[in-house]
């Protein structure tokens, strides 16, 4: 039987009924508001004027399609991810106040003073250090939950406990299968038919198979599992513009990562790849708008340059943090040379996963505002850009040797498509 869902009134009674939770907020003064837009959860923000907390409860169906039933057990992945992230990547995760297994809900820190990264990206707001800290977050979680930072038996028990097959199936279908075949979940502007067809060649499917097999079989660390830019909060711009210490204190955390319900044991490259796939989508939007005519300043803008720098910034954040932690690795036999080989492999697969993520968010289920909010002509440009760059990454990921190589793919795609559009005129 599904858990009783909270609403804006009953959630306060729920908190008042718990001595632990009612110590965190004045329930007599509290107001609640449902603020979620995720597919699988309710997200209720409760504030008393001074303090706040968030109650996240799983839905037994997909929010935008109630006929699509989904297990409420994703709450256990959410709890596991929150617990691990707040322990191992403390600075970059919400504080975690606990799981109610019978009500299928977790309680966590109110981060409403932060802003969703996709939203600042779509407003062309530069957020310094966010990419670096997203990379550090991935490294912290990966190191401590893998054979690098924990003993063999501990990792194997944790991986077994984190099995999440029904939720993992969603990722397997939506990212690695449906976009490459006909499926009701897919849609795109007909003007992008050629780009979609090109993705459905057997040679591309074989590369996607390689990525899917990596995701299915390489259970090396606890992943966030859905690290797109709607799963990352960044600091509000006012804090970055003003006198606030966070602007100059580069060591203050500049991201908070949330939404852990897709967490599984998998390849660390997947979290990096999902992040980069969403950077690519922000670039697709920028490319489309820059080429919309009458905005030459936008074509070579500080914002566009900053977007291009995010691959290297996040990769450096990841690599430096992972190497720093690896100095204390549990497995002595994991030599520095082996760590270097593992890092290089992680980069390659991350590039491939970036392409797969950008494809699914462009033509498959769960599309993104970066592209969906564009006028039709710009949407077509953005779609072509995203699909073309993604295909290059999927076909060539085994040759990627640096984060700069990914930036090169993006820049080459922009100039090639831009030249073709110019020739059409
Ligand atoms: C049915 S859930 C659809 C998607 O939402 C989340 O963002 C995940 O990416 C999932 O694939
Ligand atoms: Mg989510």
Write up this protein.
With 425 residues, the protein is of the alpha+beta class. The chain has 18 helices and 12 strands. The chain has helices at residues 10-16, 19-22, 74-88, 117-122, 130-145, 152-161, 165-176, 193-199, 202-217, 237-241, 245-248, 268-290, 296-299, 302-326, 336-363, 369-372, 376-396, 403-424; strands spanning 31-34, 41-47, 52-58, 61-62, 65-69, 96-100, 105-109, 114-116, 221-222, 232-235, 255-257, 265-266. It has a 5-stranded antiparallel beta sheet with strand order 1-2-3-7-6, covered by helices on one side. The protein has a 3-stranded antiparallel beta sheet with strand order 8-10-11. The chain has a two-stranded antiparallel ribbon with strand order 4-5. A hairpin with a 2-residue loop joins strand 4 and strand 5 (65-69). The longest helix has 28 residues, at 336-363. The radius of gyration is 21 Å and the shape is globular. The structure holds 5-S-methyl-5-thio-alpha-D-ribofuranose and magnesium ion (MG). Residues 39-40, 62, 170-171, 174, 226, 262, 365-366 line the site of 5-S-methyl-5-thio-alpha-D-ribofuranose.
Which SSEs are present, and which pair or pack?
Layout: H1 10-16, H2 19-22, E1 31-34, E2 41-47, E3 52-58, E4 61-62, E5 65-69, H3 74-88, E6 96-100, E7 105-109, E8 114-116, H4 117-122, H5 130-145, H6 152-161, H7 165-176, H8 193-199, H9 202-217, E9 221-222, E10 232-235, H10 237-241, H11 245-248, E11 255-257, E12 265-266, H12 268-290, H13 296-299, H14 302-326, H15 336-363, H16 369-372, H17 376-396, H18 403-424
Antiparallel strand pairs: 1-2, 2-3, 3-7, 4-5, 6-7, 8-10, 9-12, 10-11
Helix pairs in contact: 5-12, 5-14, 8-17, 9-15, 12-14, 12-15, 12-17, 14-15, 14-18, 15-17, 17-18
The structure holds 5-S-methyl-5-thio-alpha-D-ribofuranose and magnesium ion (MG).
Residues 39-40, 62, 170-171, 174, 226, 262, 365-366 line the site of 5-S-methyl-5-thio-alpha-D-ribofuranose (SR1).
């Amino acid at each position: 039987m599904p858990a009783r869902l909270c609403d804006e009134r009953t959630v306060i009674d729920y908190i008042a009924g718990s001595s632990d939770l009612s110590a965190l907020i004045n329930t007599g003064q509290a107001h609640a508001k449902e603020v979620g837009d995720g597919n699988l959860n309710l997200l209720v923000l409760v504030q008393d004027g001074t303090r706040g907390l968030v109650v996240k409860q799983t839905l037994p169906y997909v929010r935008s399609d109630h006929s699509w039933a989904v297990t409420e057990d994703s709450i256990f992945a959410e709890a596991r991810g929150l617990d691990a992230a707040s322990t191992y990547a403390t600075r970059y995760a919400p504080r975690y106040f606990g799981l109610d297994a019978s009500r299928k809900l977790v309680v966590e820190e109110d981060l409403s003073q932060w802003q969703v990264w996709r939203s600042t990206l779509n407003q062309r707001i530069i957020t310094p250090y966010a990419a670096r800290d997203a990379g550090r977050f991935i490294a912290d979680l990966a190191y401590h939950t893998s054979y690098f930072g924990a003993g063999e038996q501990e990792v194997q028990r944790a991986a077994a406990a984190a099995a999440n097959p029904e939720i993992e199936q969603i990722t397997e279908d939506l990212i690695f299968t449906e976009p490459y075949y006909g499926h009701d979940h897919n849609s795109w502007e007909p003007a992008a038919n050629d780009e979609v067809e090109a993705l459905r060649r057997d040679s591309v499917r074989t590369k996607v198979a390689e990525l899917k097999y990596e995701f299915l079989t390489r259970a090396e660390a606890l992943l966030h599992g859905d690290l797109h830019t709607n799963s990352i909060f960044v600091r509000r711009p006012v804090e970055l513009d003003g006198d606030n210490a966070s602007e100059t204190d580069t060591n203050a955390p500049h991201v908070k990562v949330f939404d852990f319900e897709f967490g599984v044991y998998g390849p660390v490259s997947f979290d990096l790849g999902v992040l980069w796939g969403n950077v690519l989508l922000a670039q697709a939007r920028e490319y489309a708008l820059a080429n919309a005519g009458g905005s030459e300043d936008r074509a070579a803008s500080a914002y566009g340059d900053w977007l291009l720098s995010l691959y290297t910034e996040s990769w450096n954040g990841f690599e430096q943090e992972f190497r720093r932690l690896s100095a204390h690795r549990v497995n002595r036999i994991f030599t520095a040379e082996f760590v270097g080989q593992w890092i290089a492999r992680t980069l390659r697969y991350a590039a491939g996963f970036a392409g797969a993520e950008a494809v699914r968010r462009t033509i498959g289920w769960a599309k993104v505002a970066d592209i969906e909010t564009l006028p039709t002509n710009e949407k077509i440009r953005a779609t072509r850009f995203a699909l073309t760059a993604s295909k290059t990454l999927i076909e060539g990921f085994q040759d990627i040797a640096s984060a700069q190589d990914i930036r090169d793919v993006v820049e080459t795609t922009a100039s090639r498509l831009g030249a073709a559009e110019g020739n059409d005129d």
